[in-house]
User: Fold these one by one.
Assistant:
Number 1:
Amino acid sequence: MKFDCYGQAFTTEAELCDMLYQNPNLSLARFYVEDPGRFNRACMETYSELPLLEGYTPFDVSVEEFDQQLQSHWRMPAEYKTLNIAEHVLGLCSTDAELQRVGQELLLYQERDLFDLLRYLKYFVDTMRKNGVVWGLGRGSSTASYVLYLLGVHKIDSLYYDLPIEEFLK
C-alpha cells in the first residue's frame, strides 16, 4: 500500500479485496483504487452489504484545504462538536503557570484553526479510556504541548520538563 502527500492510501483492487476477505467490516472510506467503478461493481457482485467507495477528493487542492475537508467529516457526538474546548482546557489548570501556558498554546491553536482537532482528540482519548485501550506515553514534538498533556493525548508534562511550545508548532 502506498500513501500520497495527502495521506491517502492507494492500493490495487487485488490488495483491497484481500483485505476485505480478511476483515469484511473494513472501512473503505480512505482507500483509493485506480478504477473505483470496477471495484464497486465487483463489491456489489461479491458483497452486497459492503459500502461503496465515494467520489474522490480533487487533487487540485492544497494539503491544508484537503485537511479541512477531512476534518469537516469527522464522526463524533454532538457534545464534542459543540464543546467549548478552550474553556474545558482552561478548567483543567490549577496554577497560574498552567493558565499562562495553556492560554499561550490556545492562541496558537486558534491561529491555526485547530480547535476542531482538539475537540476530536478529547473525544478520541475519552473513547479509548472508556474502552480500556492503552496507548503510549507520547512521542515526538507533540509532547511539547501542555494542552495535549491536559487532554490526555500524551503523558509528558511539558511544563515540568520546560519544553517550549515552539517545538510542537514549528
Number 2:
Amino acid sequence: MDSRYYEFLPIDLDSHTDLCIQFALDSTFGSPKRLTGEDGLGAQRYIQRMRDKLSADPNSCVFIWLDGEVVGQMNLGRFNNENIGYVHFFYVIPEWRGKGVAKTMAEFTDEWFRQRGFTTALLSVSMDNGRAVRFYVRQGWKDLGPRPDRPDLHNMEKSIIVTF
C-alpha cells in the first residue's frame, strides 16, 4: 500500500485553466484536434463543462496533490443522466506514472461513486493506450468493446460494491 499522503482537492479553474488544458492535450496522444475541435473552441467548451460539473459537485473535478505538487487530475460524473457513474478524465502526469498514483486515484474514484449511490461506472479508453487498458483491467474494469460513436475507443464497465 502506498503510504504517501495524497490530497484530492477541487480544481480552481481561475488559477489552473492552463494546467487542465495542458493535461487534456497530453492525453490526446498527439491529436490536439480531439480537444480543440475543428473550430478551435473545444478547449473553452471543455473548461466550461468542468465549470458546470464543479458548480453541481465541487468534488467532481479534482487535482491530486502530493507534497505541494499536482500529480494527476480526475473528472467524474454521471453517464447520460442515468444512474451510472462515469470517469470523464483520469490523468497522471508522466513523471508519476508507475508510482502508485493511479491506484490511489482508482480507490478515490470507487469511493466517489459509492458515496453517490452508483453501483455501475463506465469509462472510455483508447485501445492504443495499452498501459491504461491493462491498469483498468487490473482494477476490475471489463471491456465492453468499441464505442458506437468512436470505434477508436472502447467502453469499459465496473461494478461498484456498495458497503453499509
Number 3:
Amino acid sequence: MSEVRKGYYYLPTDEWVKVDGDTATIGISDYAQHHLGDIVFVEMKDKNTVLKKGDVLTTIESVKSASDIYSPLSGTIIDMNPTLDQDTALVNTSPYDEGWIVKIKISNPMEIKELMNDQDYQNYRKE
C-alpha cells in the first residue's frame, strides 16, 4: 500500500497539501508517483502566479504520460522546488519530503475544510 502522511490533506486527483500557517506546500501522493512511473520533467511556474482552487498548478511528465497537477487551494506561488530542475526523480523517491513541487501563500483558508484528511484519502484509495 502507498504511504499516506498523517496531518496532510489530499485531493481525489492525488495531490497532497501540508499547511503551515498561511503557507501550503503541495506535491503528489505516493500513490500518484507509483502510477505515473519514472518522472522525467516537472514544469516550473513563475513566482507570484495567482491560482484559484482547481487551476492547473503544473504539468508532470513521466515515461508513461503527462499529467496536470491541480491546485488544491487558492493562493499565490511563493516558491517552486528548485531541486526538481536537476533531479525530477525526487518526486518518485521522496514525494512528501524532498519531492515537493510548489509552495503557495493561501488566500482562502476556508478551502482547507473541503480537502480530504489522511484517513479519508486512505479510505478513498481503498475503494
Number 4:
Amino acid sequence: MDGIIDLTLPVKKHWKWMFNVTVVLDHRRGDPLIDEMLYMDVHSFTHMDAPFHAYDGKSTIDQVPLSDVIGEAKVIDLSDLEANTAITADILEQNGSHVTKGDIVVVKTCQGLKQNWENPEFWTTSPYMVESAGKWLIDKEVKTVGFDFPQDYVIRELFHGKIPTLDDMIIHKLLLGADMVMIEYITNMHLITTETFNLYAIPLKLEGISGAAARVFAVP
C-alpha cells in the first residue's frame, strides 16, 4: 500500500436508503455561502452500529472509545466465496487463525467487485453470516468487526417491506449483545492485500444515538 486507501462508500441518492439534500443558502444565487440540509438514516452507507442499536442501556455511538475503531485490524479473507454462501464458524476458523482476543477484525468478501453496490444484486447474492460465525467472533473476544457485505441474510428481506425481528438478525443480536462495535458496508477491501492493516473508522459523535455515518480508511 503506497498511500491512504478509502474504504468508504460515497453518500448519495440510493434506492435502499432515505437520503435527501436541501440547499438552504447558495452563493450561486447571491447568498454569502452555500449551505445544505442533509436528511439520512444513521444506519446507511458506510456506518457504525453501537450496541444501543439493539439493546437499551448499552453504549451509544458517542460512548464508543476511539481505541475500539482505530488501530491494527486483522483481515479474514473470504474473497473466494461463491454467491449466497453461508459463512460458518468453520469457515472463519479456517481463514482466521491469526485472530486473537481484543482484535479489530474485518471480514473481507470483495462483494463490491462481484456486484455493484448500487444494484439489488449486491444485496441478494452476497455471502452472509450464520449464528455459529457470530459465536466464533464472540469466543475470540474481538472488540470490533467490519464487513464489506450485508452480514445478516434477512437484510435482503427489507426490500420486500418486511422488518425482521432481532432474533432473525442473528449477527446483530449476537455481536451487539456482546458489546462489539459493527462497521458496516466497508468497500475497496480488494486493495488490502495484507493480513493486517492500520484501520481508521471515524464516526460522527452523535450524542445518545445508536449509530453514525463513518469515514473509514486504511493507512500504510
